[in-house]
Amino acid sequence: MKFFKKSNKKNHTTDIEDLRKMIDEADLPVNIREIANQELEKLTKMNSSTAEYTVGLIYIEYLVTLPWNKQTQDNLDINRAERILNENHYGLENVKERILEYLAVRKLKLDRKYQILVVDDDKIARDNLKHILEKEGYHVVAVASGMEALQQFQNAEFDVVLTDLKMEKIDGMELLERIKSRYPDVEVIMITAYATISSAVEAIKKGAYNYIAKPFQIKDVRSIVREALEKRLLQQEIRGPIFCFVGPPGTGKTSLGKSIAQALERKFVRISLAGMKDEAEIRGHPRTYVAAMPGRIIREIRRVGSINPVF
């Protein structure tokens, strides 16, 4: 690590300034930027001659150089994928069929319109939100109460819910709790004329994606809904599916992985588990000593420069 090499030559202030510049210039998600700044604040209070200081330098440098917002866009052309699989693999028809089934289902999911649920007992606000979001190309269902909203979940799958805070029987906060307990991947956005710092903090703690005060700007609604959908999509990408190929050496397990990556136009990473004695080699070591290293998975993501390679 370059900071490890330089730390003895540069003074404490210069180290901090260099790291701060790296953080400011890096393309980081909001939560990662916050973590990096918190770690930097800890360094400002440390003695630069300590081992903990060096570990902190290395950690922050590694953190900001990971490709957090860089990912390859999947090519879901089924005919192309079938051609690649057939060119690279003779036989294995059942295996290739399962791979193509996965790609077909994924394509159907991505091609569908995003489903938005609007919950507000004020008809004017409800209709306005529905109109704004439908113009963005979303499929929007608008209801007047929390009870109706929960009933809608029995018939459809929603990506984002926008809900008013003050409603009779089931208010927005209770609706948020119920949705998150049953459908944790759904992003919930609170919209209310009764915004306070305490209610905003409470909503975020209970899992709300964001909190908008009325009267709201149309551009803010569009922007926050789009960001919520992007977060949901990224979470699905990160949790990607797992294919388990079983067979003796030489049957084509690795080459099948390469073909999947080629078909999707993703980066490919091969990690051999043979001879690994400690799972820390894969997951990484605790930051308790200078020799602590990131795990193989993180190192490979950094090397290929993409957050979503095929492993």
Number-wise, the strands total 5
Number of helical elements: 14
CATH architecture type of one domain: 3-Layer(aba) Sandwich
Low-confidence stretches: 3-7
The best one-word shape is flat
Element string (H = helix, E = strand): HHHHHHEHEHEHEHEHHHH
Q: Which whole number gives the mean pLDDT?
A: 83
Structural class computed from helices and strand pairing:
alpha/beta
Strand order of the largest sheet: 2-1-3-4-5
| Full CATH superfamily name of one domain | Response regulator
Termini separation (Å)?
25 Å
Give an account of the 3D structure:
With 311 residues, the chain is α/β, with parallel strands linked by helices. Among the domains are: 1-65, no CATH class; 113-216, Rossmann fold (3-Layer(aba) Sandwich), CATH 3.40.50. Helix content is 53%, strand content 8%. The protein is built from 14 helices and 5 strands. The protein has helices at 2-6, 12-25, 30-44, 51-64, 78-88, 93-111, 123-135, 146-152, 172-182, 197-205, 218-238, 253-264, 280-283, 296-304, and strands spanning 115-119, 139-143, 160-164, 187-192, 210-213. Strands 2-1-3-4-5 form a 5-stranded parallel β-sheet, sandwiched between helices. Strand 1, helix 7 (123-135) and strand 2 (139-143) form a beta-alpha-beta unit. Helix 2 packs antiparallel against helix 3, helix 3 runs antiparallel to helix 4 and helix 8 runs parallel beside helix 9 (172-182). The longest helix has 21 residues, at 218-238.
